[in-house]
Amino acid sequence: MNKLSYGLLSLLSTEPMSGYDLTTKINKFWRSTHSAIYPLLSELEEGNYIELTLIEQTGKPDKKIYHLTDKGKELLRSWFISETADEVCRDEMTLKLYCINCMDEEAAETLLKEYEDRCNKRIEMYHKNLARIKVLAQENPDNAPASVFGSYIMTQRGLQKTELDLKWCEWVRRIYKKKNLSFLKEDLR
Amino acid sequence: MNKLSYGLLSLLSTEPMSGYDLTTKINKFWRSTHSAIYPLLSELEEGNYIELTLIEQTGKPDKKIYHLTDKGKELLRSWFISETADEVCRDEMTLKLYCINCMDEEAAETLLKEYEDRCNKRIEMYHKNLARIKVLAQENPDNAPASVFGSYIMTQRGLQKTELDLKWCEWVRRIYKKKNLSFLKEDLR
DNA sequence: AAGGCATATGTCAATAATGACATATGCCTT
DNA sequence: AAGGCATATGTCATTATTGACATATGCCTT
């Protein structure tokens, strides 16, 4: 029962979905692949924390829709109130930006542009996500609050942080060229 | 030659330091432990990307101070301009906050408080770090810009993001209780 | 004086994560 | 008609990460 298992329960708490859906959804909060997720779903099912409904489809392969059992909801709550592990983060971009000052202008500018591009793409993605959430909410106003709350707050957080990153890039560009310590007086705002 | 190796070179580009120093410094940007770092330092040394100076100490164990070679600087630049991998993030707190809406008020409030505590501790840590950077800069004004730039921009970024997280927590607390969709109209600001 | 802590370096077994392989449906484009 | 793509589920060998074990100095507190 690793951390990812609880993540799957967390996602399933908002609405029942397939392993495929879980794979795409969890990737926004927790780096993983279907290779890890499918075996965990089998384990969770064996432990009676989730149950599946087989949905036969035409035009697409059949799928297994999982939903939480009462036992699963209990496990979710016990995990929720247990101690929270420190996050694991490995961000190559940050490692590169750390040594930007010892790189020549061309290399530095190329990296900043690359990062800004990524940020802009993410911002676009977050806006699309917000639009999708609002459509979902209108389509199903009774069930929507519960199923949409988590996505909504996370999208808002991601959007704000990414906009901050863009401002930060501009600031880094501004102070990059200074060869004395005057950058220590420049505020990031 | 994995990503962490380049991270070590990145840190060493600002100033020579020991494996112990690298372990504490890199942890702010890249989750790792000394178990992974010491073997990599040996590899990097065998490849002539770094060289060591043995420093005999009294009161503390002797240490090995590593510095970049020209070959190491070349490798650092070639990595810097190469494609940047997507970040790996596994944050249990985020996974929990995602399903906060289906938890009872007590559990929800306990988690928000825990998160805010963490944020406040981090903010304190960032402020201390900024103060330390300014002391370092005053002590050694000629060498300081190069050795301090990376830490300074990363500390500023971390500080801003963490302050944003605190505001976000307040916002989440405010909209948590709403059982209808009115929260979709509330802006995070 | 005993224990804890920060400094300092190192190994290794157990566990976890990744990327490749595998299969299958049917749509859409060239 | 062939290939690519999105959907959908699954396995497994390789690689990477973690936590424990190991050793050592000397300071500080109880």
Care to describe what's here?
The structure is a homodimer of 189-residue chains. Chain A is mostly helical. The first copy, chain A, folds into two domains: 3-80, Winged helix-like DNA-binding domain superfamily/Winged helix DNA-binding domain (Arc Repressor Mutant, subunit A, Orthogonal Bundle); 92-185. Helix content of chain A is 62%, strand content 8%. Chain A has a two-stranded antiparallel ribbon with strand order 1-2. In chain A, strand 1 (50-55) and strand 2 form a beta hairpin. In chain A, helix 2 (19-26) packs across helix 3 (34-46) and helix 6 packs antiparallel against helix 7 (144-176). The longest helix of chain A has 35 residues, at 105-139. The model of chain A has no long low-confidence stretch (mean pLDDT 93). At the A-B interface, helix 1, helix 4, strand 3, helix 5 and helix 6 of A face helix 1, helix 4, strand 3, helix 5 and helix 6 of B. Strand 3 of chain A pairs antiparallel with strand 3 (88-90) of chain B, so a sheet runs across the interface. The structure holds a DNA duplex (30 and 30 nucleotides).
